[in-house]
């Protein structure tokens, strides 16, 4: 194959184009990456590769990228467990459930406090939903 035949033009500097270009360059093949977006627009894109799964990481490893990316990322543990949050929830439940158990026989609690509490929980849930989606 002549040198000219070994030149490759890669259209698009997304992850696929860049990985391909890197792989080709590592094999000594001249590559020209053509990207439609300008430098400003390209860097201002919404980040879309926040999470990389094992197969992607293996691919990164095969082109020598993993060792450079890993120190800049957060490696998710296989099983994630927040002991403080879980214990806190158990403590709250241990305090609240006996009180509810005791109050459940009182008609005023059933007819007034249960609907009021349900509405309060629904309002709080709605507020957090709106806050997380729009703010
Ligand atoms: C909101 C969102 C979040 C995501 N999060 C993740 C994630 O966490 N992890 C993950 O693995 N994947 C994620 N993805 C998917 C991931 O972004 C895509 O799988 C990946 O970007 C595809 O790469 P690509 O190179 O094929 O295409 P693209 O990333 O779309 O890149 C194509 C490039 O080619 C350029 N181009 C197009 N046409 C031309 C042309 N005619 N001439 C020159 N240049 C051109 C474009 O401007 C673009 O830069 C997410 C996607 C979205 C939308």
Domain count: 3
Separation, N- and C-terminal Cα atoms: 57 Å
Q: How many helical stretches?
A: 6
Report the bound ligands by name, code or SMILES.
flavin-adenine dinucleotide
Order of helices and strands: EHEHHHHH
Beta strand %? 5-15%
Outline type:
elongated
Helix content: 55-70%
Low-pLDDT residue intervals, each spanning 5 or more residues: none
Main sheet characteristics: 2 strands, parallel
Estimate the mean pLDDT confidence. 90
Largest beta sheet: what is the strand line-up?
1-2
Write down how many β-strands occur, each being a DSSP E stretch of 2 or more residues: 2
Q: Report the structural category.
A: mainly alpha
Radius of gyration, in Å, reads 28 Å
Give a structural overview.
With 135 residues, the chain is mainly alpha-helical. It has three domains: 1-48, no CATH class; 52-80, no CATH class; 83-134. The chain has six helices and two strands. It has helices at residues 15-26, 39-43, 54-62, 66-69, 83-103, 107-134, and strands at 8-11, 31-34. Helix 1 (15-26) links the parallel strand 1 and strand 2. The longest helix is centred in the last third of the chain and has 28 residues, at 107-134. It is elongated, with a radius of gyration of 28 Å. The structure holds flavin-adenine dinucleotide. Residues 11-17, 34-37, 48-52, 56 line the site of flavin-adenine dinucleotide.
